[in-house]
Amino acid sequence: MASKLALVLSTLLLAVNGQAYDGGDRDEDAFSWVQPLNTTILGPYGHSPAVLPSPNATGAGGWEEALQKAKDFVAQLTVEEKADMITGTPGPCVGNIVAIPRLGFKGLCLQDGPLAIRVADYASVFMAGVSAAASWDRDLLYERGYAMGREFRAKGAHVALSPVAGPLGRSAYSGRNWEGFAADPYLTGVAMEETIMGHQDAGVQATPKHFIGNEQETMRNPLYDVNGTVGAVTFEAISSNIDDRTMHELYLWPFANAVKAGAASFMCSYQRLNGSYACENSKAQNGLLKGELGFQGYIMSDWGGTHSGVASIEGGLDMNMPGGLGSYGVNWKAGSYFGANATAAVNNGTVPESRLDDMVIRIMTPYYFLGQDAEDFPSVDPSTANLNTFSPPSSWLREFNLTGESSRDVREDHGGLIRRHGAEATVLLKNVDGALPLKHPKSIAIFGNDAGDDTEGYYNQQNFEFGTLTAGGGSGTGRLTYLISPSEAIKARAAQDKALVQQWLNNTLIATSNVTDLWIPVVPEVCLVFLKTWAEEAKDREHLSVDWHGDDVVYSVAKSCNNTVVVTHSSGINTLPWADHPNVTAILAVHYPGQESGNSIADILYGDVNPSGRLPYTIALNGSDYNAPPTTAINTTGVYDWQSWFDEKLEIDYRYFDAHDIKVRYEFGFGLSYTTFELANAVEVESCTGSETVSSRPEAQPVMPGGNPALWEVLYNVTASVTNTGGVAGATVPQLYVTFPSGTTPAGTPPKQLRGFTKKTLQPGETAEVGFELMRRDLSYWDVVSQEWLIPEGEFVFNVGFSSRDIRATAKFAPVA
Ligand SMILES: *[C@@H]1O[C@H](CO)[C@@H](O)[C@H](O)[C@H]1NC(C)=O
Ligand SMILES: *[C@@H]1O[C@H](CO)[C@@H](O)[C@H](O)[C@H]1NC(C)=O
Ligand SMILES: *[C@@H]1O[C@H](CO)[C@@H](O)[C@H](O)[C@H]1NC(C)=O
Ligand SMILES: *[C@@H]1O[C@H](CO)[C@@H](O)[C@H](O)[C@H]1NC(C)=O
Ligand SMILES: *[C@@H]1O[C@H](CO)[C@@H](O)[C@H](O)[C@H]1NC(C)=O
Ligand SMILES: *[C@@H]1O[C@H](CO)[C@@H](O)[C@H](O)[C@H]1NC(C)=O
Ligand SMILES: *[C@@H]1O[C@H](CO)[C@@H](O)[C@H](O)[C@H]1NC(C)=O
Ligand SMILES: *[C@@H]1O[C@H](CO)[C@@H](O)[C@H](O)[C@H]1NC(C)=O
Ligand SMILES: *[C@@H]1O[C@H](CO)[C@@H](O)[C@H](O)[C@H]1NC(C)=O
Ligand SMILES: *[C@@H]1O[C@H](CO)[C@@H](O)[C@H](O)[C@H]1NC(C)=O
Ligand SMILES: *[C@@H]1O[C@H](CO)[C@@H](O)[C@H](O)[C@H]1NC(C)=O
Ligand SMILES: *[C@@H]1O[C@H](CO)[C@@H](O)[C@H](O)[C@H]1NC(C)=O
Asked: Which residue intervals define the domain Fibronectin type III-like in the entry (predicted)?
């Protein structure tokens, strides 16, 4: 039935869109309109069935009242006003929907990004997603999301373009992994949920992005011809070709948490997905997101990610951002795929007005739900207009009345929060003979260009040779109002011990010197080496080493200093080839911790905070050990030829290394503490449903945000007991990895998958019981035949430990009789 309807609508689109289609199989999505489907070439996936029409919002999940307000609002709009509501226009914010003064609607302000309100002054720069994930701490994730949300709102932003679950981290090299959380759907899912609840509790709409399959930056957008002519494309963007099971169990998983958390809006991604552009892929938008997951909000395009009018509207896209045509959508004068084209398409009967209404209803429902219509919702800070290089005032086509105080300081006391978070998310990877914490050293040497103050300002630190690095680049960066460097913080701290502190920040000098010549005559008690690794949007990483000859710096220092402590600021994975060097006594991975970086690090170095971060990815022995590298080149010239086949399926990060028994340097979930912990042998599995066993198939319940509510039902509680066996207080992160029964679970299931974690602070000698609540989804695989989540028959193994490769206790249990 769905497929028959799809056939009819696709034919309609073919007739009215006026483009040259191939005349091929109409029972497929936009992809098939522009390229004949050849399943011999494409194989079992790489093409996308049409799922039409786009479902209407119902307000399910508590939005019913807000939905009614949205409907009442839409009832008063002209078709032109409706078109304004779905189409961005240049204005003070990164994305703008114009006001409708006659209805008292003040417009919508959409602002980047996932670690700060970027286009702003007097706002905080929080830690990046990768750092937040490394905390493995639900409370921290919520606090961060909430504090960020307060700053967005106080600056007058209705919508925060945050958080990120795409990229998930399929490839170690992807340029935007740091904006997201972990190379694991479960941890990322929890992080999405907490962040979104934090943002929205603060009154700001969250925008989980980039939906979906945005796993590399290279060729994420089409390559227009040399003259940039709109429509003249040399290559269409890369197509992420993902099979159905992998889609559900990896890439869609954290987005399901996002919908469950009540996310207001979604941002579709730049690249193609199984052949058609993600922002016009009806299978992804209508089928998976609005249908299967019951998403009640709206989908906006990534900036310039809209490549059609009618096809995108029918395919489920609700808002075109930033609204114009051309690369990144900023060619405002060239028109828009939405805007007047949407009006025309409704007026000439191509698009039913009910679809346009649903787009606006979806946009306005979360607005009312979050009380953004309140008189006291802050105005857009006028200062944003001048900071916005994306659509400066000279580009504006519509009127914006900027009122209220300019350059409002919205930072509150968030500096203290960011400092604490930065320390709590730091991962201690190595600590030999108690090198850390420092014990009042009287002589300290600091090395590396990442140690000192930035010398070229505080924004987009890409090419700064000198200066500490706290965020990556692109739309996900932040504008620092101040920055505590490691050098500054350590000097302040060392002053309490009246210590001698010497520093060398020139990496070339350090790498090419005999450092004993530098520090003469005082031999330092500890050598602190600070390294940095940049990554940014629109570019994938070329290597997994640290930048600026950082490895040579470590070797040079460690050659002469038997207490070398290395600290990395990094977007994520670094291979750390010197990790086993006997003189490298400690390693700290701080990632991108935000504006209080130096203080956070000093708190860890001196033991004020006991490290409790854990790796949210795997550090392999060699860069070449990682699978699924980005597709960086093709040898053919066909317009559609950029393809990325996700043939590794479920085997990303630790799932891959475990499945192939590959040795790694530091595994997923690993991290040390200044104290020690033990897990008792006994792992218990308690039923939470009143019956020991459960059905394989979930009860069919009406879809709610997040999907079938039965999938979120807690079925079992796996409990274990953890003890702090060391001498100081500290937090640890017991983790639960589930091994699915073999034989009854389809081939390709990874040996172990994270399905629970909990961060627990314990005093010396203290023991606590920890529980991992397993929902139905946690025990299910996606069955591509029945299109259901099924719990396989047979015995599961519940592995509890301190990392993915440090399993301390297990229990076996068969949930399905
Ligand atoms: C599909 O591709 C295969 C392999 O290139 C080719 O042999 C076959 O003729 C193609 N089929 C059609 C219908 O074009
Ligand atoms: C959406 O609701 C309108 C009535 O408001 C109805 O005409 C239309 O058919 C519905 N669309 C879908 C896809 O159910
Ligand atoms: C680009 O513009 C130049 C100068 O107008 C023209 O000579 C050239 O043919 C154009 N290239 C393409 C691919 O359209
Ligand atoms: C309609 O869309 C086309 C691209 O398909 C664009 O060239 C044109 O300018 C748009 N019209 C308006 C009025 O925006
Ligand atoms: C209706 O309007 C849309 C958008 O401008 C256009 O693409 C389409 O060709 C028009 N169809 C007809 C039948 O006029
Ligand atoms: C801007 O302010 C003027 C004067 O108060 C008012 O007439 C106009 O409607 C306002 N425009 C918008 C977009 O709010
Ligand atoms: C860093 O050291 C190298 C090697 O001694 C030197 O050539 C270079 O000029 C130094 N850079 C700065 C900025 O001092
Ligand atoms: C480095 O300098 C020290 C002190 O001058 C000296 O003892 C040592 O031999 C030098 N090492 C090298 C490799 O030059
Ligand atoms: C470690 O440092 C000491 C100096 O304290 C040095 O003599 C030794 O050679 C270093 N070891 C290595 C493996 O470089
Ligand atoms: C490390 O080097 C220092 C200074 O040269 C020396 O006093 C100390 O004994 C060395 N420690 C070890 C474990 O080699
Ligand atoms: C392109 O062709 C070269 C030479 O045949 C080959 O080595 C390379 O792997 C090919 N690259 C791709 C992306 O297919
Ligand atoms: C699971 O166990 C933990 C630890 O005993 C407990 O705190 C939690 O309430 C339990 N959850 C359920 C649903 O029973």
From this structure: 732-804
Q: Minimum-distance ligand to the CA of 325?
A: 4
Q: Which of 95, 67, 47 is nearest to 284 (CA)?
A: 47
Residue 521 near ligand 9, beta carbon < 6 Å = no
On whether the 64-393 domain is CATH 3.40.50.150, my answer is no
DSSP strand E in 433-483: where?
443-447
Residue indicated by tokens 């099971």: 245
Do 64-393 and 674-813 agree at the fold level? no
Q: Which atom of ligand 9 is nearest to the CA of 582?
A: 13
Q: Give bridge partners of residue 644 from the DSSP assignment.
A: 240
Q: Give the span between the Cα atoms of 94 and 805, in whole angstroms.
A: 43
3-state secondary structure at position 109: strand
Residue 384 to residue 398: CA distance in whole angstroms: 16
CATH of 674-813, one of 2.60.120.1440, 3.40.50.150, 2.60.40.10, 3.20.20.70: 2.60.40.10
Boundaries of every domain in the chain: 64-393, 414-609, 674-813
590 CA distance to ligand 7 middle (Å) = 27
Residue-wise pLDDT for 329-353, tens only, equals: 999 999 999 999 999 999 999 999 9
Q: Give 433: exposed, middle or buried? Use CB within 10 Å, 0-12, 13-18, 19+.
A: exposed
Residue-wise pLDDT tens digits, 730-743 = 999 999 999 999 99
Q: Are strands 276-277 and 272-273 parallel, antiparallel or unpaired?
A: antiparallel
The ligand whose atoms approach the alpha carbon of 358 most closely is 2
Q: Does domain 414-609 have CATH number 3.40.1110.10?
A: no
DSSP label at residue 284:
I
Query: Are the C-beta atoms of residues 138 and 149 closer than 8 Å to each other?
Result: no
Residue type, 219: M
341 C-alpha to ligand 4 centroid (Å): 6
Q: CA nearest 53: which of 352, 267, 319? A: 352
Q: Is 254 in the pocket of ligand 2 (CB under 6 A)?
A: no
- Which helix H or strand E contains 365, and what residues bound it? helix 353-369
Residue nearest atom 6 in ligand 8 by C-alpha distance: 516
Q: Average pLDDT in the 200-218 region?
A: 98
The predicted pLDDT at position 39 comes to: 57
In short, whether 353's Cβ falls inside 6 Å of ligand 2 is no
